[in-house]
Amino acid sequence: MVKVIASSLRKGNVVEIDGRLYAVLSATNFHPGKGTPTTSVDMRRISDGTKVSERWKTTDQVEKATVDEREYDFLYEDGEGFHFMEPISYEQLVVTEDVMGDNKVYLEEGMRCYLKTFEGVAIALEVPQKITVEITETEPVVKGQTASSSYKPAITTKGLRVMVPPHIDVGTRIIINTDDNSYQGRDKE
User: Fold this and answer.
1) What is the pTM of this model?
2) Is 41 exposed, middle or buried (CB count within 10 Å of its CB: 0-12, 13-18, 19+)?
3) How far apart are CA 84 and CA 98, in angstroms?
4) pLDDT single digits (tens) 122-147
5) Does residue 79 come out as left (phi exceeding 0), alpha (psi in the -120 to 50 range) or beta?
């Protein structure tokens, strides 16, 4: 175990509190004008999947667990869960629905992800920050609408809702940021 300050915690980190491991789902630092800066952390208890929230002073020491983090390729999903394969050893690992969380909408066959394991069990998954998706549904372009002022809602092949500029049409491949589903630009390929 390594001690780190609370403000350095990020999504996907694993911390130990009272002998139990927790996967960090989100961490937000608050710096009020007066008073003590704090870090608010939403976590999932690895043993049973229970979600908990904690708030610490940004300078408080937190036990960060040492986990094995490796690249894995996504293979497929079935009744057992989500199957990944380590590209060097060809070792396969099944990730459960609760560990996947919101990341399952980004998965595509063959996608390279970072999988964190503790004692051989998958505990957290990190998808690439930028991915390419195809638009399947959006409103038609309205004449006179300027590209700089407004965005319109669109739906991707995976059912993900994103806001796109007016010139983006059905069938267009775009790049989005998986942190907040924001439009990053057209796919150049």
Assistant:
1) 0.68
2) buried
3) 15
4) 888 888 889 999 999 988 766 665 55
5) alpha
